[in-house]
Amino acid sequence: MKKLLRRFLDAGPDHALAPGRERIVLDPADYAAIYAIGDVHGCYAELLDAECRVLRDAAGRDGRKLIVFLGDYIDRGPSSRRVVEHLMAPHSCRDFDRITLCGNHDAAFAAFLENPSEGRRWLDFGAAATLYSYGVDLDRTLAGGGLPHLAEQVRGAVPLAHRLWFSGLPVAVTLGQFVFVHAGLEPGTALEKQADDDLMWIREPFLQRGPELPVTVVHGHTPTDNVTFGKNRIGIDTCAYATGRLSVLRIIDGVPSLI
Question: Which run of H or of E encompasses 179?
Answer without folding.
Answer: strand 178-181
